[in-house]
Write a structure and sequence with these properties.
mainly alpha; 274 residues; two-stranded antiparallel sheet; single chain
Length: 274
């Protein structure tokens, strides 16, 4: 059992993660997971958590913290009229179903696989958001028919496996479908809730009783991290949402892309070099 003094750096890292994660949740609609997962993965590694389950714990704990964060972010964006209710109703059930599938698949995957997936997806999204592609669209509107459910199903599945709230994927996808970025960010917060609830529950059940888990864990969800991170993300998410509506579309896209690029490099290094 680690002494209280030895745990202080980890506690500080979790508190800082909560502040930064909440700001980014409101600013970018990403649920904070894109910050929480790599930071927790690093912190858990420092404290000797088995690499085979380290990413599972980071992803699961991230999803658990996204639940209250998403609620706070949705309320903030809804108050500014930035949530597309029709799209949320159309994509919502498919995002929810994808999250269940993703959590099931992730429980059977190794930590290196999850890190590589996280890094590759983050890199692709970063490049899309950083390049001047704001006037480049693959379709003029959200598709219907057979293709309609496939996109949100994929977003829910990949997001659940990565421990992110859905904004990381749904924001760039929606902008490629000619949706305004501020409205995409606001609606992505709704998807964050639909991903985090079933995802966190799935990881909790799949990790139940694992002897390698760190103290304070309920399945793969670490309650210490949840208790420290979640309140701060809820408090700071509305601040990020207000900032988002002060920035221009290009500024918001570039900020999103630069941050994701840094995260992608870190996760790919962890998978293939470290």
């Amino acid at each position: 059992m680690e002494s209280s003094a030895a745990l202080l750096p980890l506690v500080f890292a979790m508190l800082l993660t909560g502040v930064v994660g909440g700001l980014l949740a409101g600013l970018l609609g990403v649920g904070g997971g894109i910050v929480i997962v790599p930071v927790l993965d690093t912190a858990l590694g420092i404290y000797g958590v088995d690499p085979a389950i380290r990413m599972h714990v980071a992803v699961a704990t991230s999803l658990a913290t996204i639940i209250p964060t998403s609620i706070s972010s949705v309320r903030a964006h809804h108050s500014k009229g930035a949530v597309d209710g029709a799209l949320a109703r159309y994509w919502g059930p498919w995002v929810f179903a994808g999250s269940i599938v993703g959590a099931t698949l992730a429980a059977q995957s190794g930590g290196g696989v999850l890190s590589a997936l996280f890094g590759v997806v983050a890199l692709l999204v970063a490049l899309k958001m950083m390049l001047p592609l704001q006037d480049v669209f693959i379709r003029d509107g959200v598709p219907r028919g057979l293709l309609g459910p496939a996109i949100p199903l994929g977003i829910g599945g990949l997001s659940s496996m990565m421990g992110i709230g859905g904004g990381t994927l749904s924001v760039p996808v929606l902008t490629l479908l000619n949706q305004p970025i501020h409205r995409a960010v606001g609606t992505a917060a709704v998807f964050g809730l639909l991903i985090s609830l079933p995802g966190a529950l799935g990881y909790m059940l799949s990790g139940w009783g694992d002897s390698r888990l760190p103290p304070g864990s309920l399945g793969y969800v670490n309650l210490i991290g949840l208790i420290l991170i979640a309140p701060l993300t809820v408090l700071t998410a509305p601040l990020g949402a207000r900032l988002a509506h002060r920035l221009g579309q290009r500024q918001l896209s570039l900020a999103f892309g630069v941050f994701l690029l840094l995260v992608a490099v870190r996760m790919l290094y962890r998978s293939f070099i470290a």
